[in-house]
Design a protein that fits this description.
single chain, mainly alpha, about 0% strand, flat
């Protein structure tokens, strides 16, 4: 290549470099503007929330109104305030927020808010794929440990994978909650307890008590992975349909349980869920019996029993509460008709 051609190419690159500098400078200026707008929005939302809370309190303390028009206006204000709380939630999903205690302990004060819808949906979809992939892996490993490998080392690898899986889920779910996902309540706590249970199982030494419970636990793990696979497969399809109809939020997630939105189309999963819940109770009873065994010396036996009992109560009562609330809603609708 001749020197003249090299010089011409250099001039083109130099012009591109100068344009890049100008573009980057503009980017930094606009980024500063965005940060200022974010802080303004956050301050305004906090002020609005505080004012609405004070107004709601004042409305509660108002004397009963005789005028029907005033009563209608009061109800109208209450409905609008409730609606605007949901709008504030949507706004906050696109604004930076302080991490909760758990994320602060794990990640520090890193901002985990994703600012575009595309980034939020991509992270949510990646979370769902991660759950599906690990569920299949856990099913295969638990099957191998149960029927092919009678080894404490293999069991330790399986339990370590469970600890890592549930800890990773709790971190990812906390990030998704910061970005507008509405998973909450027991289905969040459930993963923390499962991570703790897996950690206790990992530390359980290879003893007679462990061998007596081993096959039952691995069989339960296989069944649990199978049910979780069924839930992901059918819940993801149901969520897609409900989102298309505008009946569910775009950041809603699949869960290892039953929620009100699953009532239409997914009630056939309930027998599988209840069987799994009562298997957790059976595990707890088995472990409590083993803890009374003359040769039982490990603290892990009773600790696992208590944890399985907590999981059973949480899962069973939450599922029953959802079914009860749905039945009450149906009865109220029938009365109105």
């Amino acid at each position: 290549m001749a020197f003249q051609e090299c010089w011409e190419e250099w001039e083109v690159l130099d012009k591109d470099y100068l344009m890049l500098q100008e573009t980057h400078k503009l980017y930094k200026q606009q980024l500063e503007e965005v940060i200022k707008l974010q802080n303004t929005c956050l301050t305004s939302i906090e002020r609005q929330k505080k004012k609405y809370k004070e107004l709601a309190s004042n409305l509660q303390q108002c004397e009963p109104l005789d005028s029907e028009e005033h009563s209608r206006e009061t109800e109208f204000m209450k409905e609008l305030m409730k609606e605007r709380q949901n709008i504030f939630f949507e706004m906050e999903a696109f604004l930076p927020k302080r991490n909760g205690l758990y994320l602060t302990l794990v990640l520090g004060n890193v901002n985990v808010t994703l600012l575009s819808k595309q980034a939020k949906f991509a992270y949510k979809d990646e979370y769902e794929k991660f759950k599906l992939f690990l569920t299949i892996i856990l099913l295969l490993i638990s099957f191998s440990c149960r029927f092919l490998l009678n080894s404490r080392v293999a069991d330790s690898v399986f339990n370590f994978l469970l600890v890592w899986y549930y800890c990773t889920l709790t971190i990812r779910e906390s990030i998704l909650i910061n970005n507008g996902s509405r998973i909450k309540g027991w289905w969040v706590i459930h993963h923390y307890i499962s991570a703790f249970l897996s950690g206790v199982m990992l530390t359980w030494p290879d003893s007679k008590m462990y061998q007596l419970f081993r096959n039952q636990f691995l069989s339960f793990s296989m069944y649990q992975s199978f049910v979780q696979f069924l839930q992901y497969y059918y819940q993801s399809g149901c969520l897609y349909r409900l989102r298309a109809l505008g009946e569910r939020h775009n950041m809603d997630l699949t869960v290892e349980g039953f929620q009100s939105w699953m009532w239409r189309g997914l009630t056939f999963l309930l027998p599988f869920l209840f069987f799994g819940h009562f298997w957790q109770l059976f595990n707890a009873i088995t472990l409590f019996k083993l803890s009374d065994h003359p040769e039982c010396k490990e603290w892990q036996v009773s600790m696992c029993g208590i944890t399985f009992l907590i999981l059973f109560l949480g899962n069973f009562l939450t599922t029953v509460r959802v079914i009860y609330q749905k039945q009450k809603q149906r009865e109220n609708k029938n009365k109105q008709l």
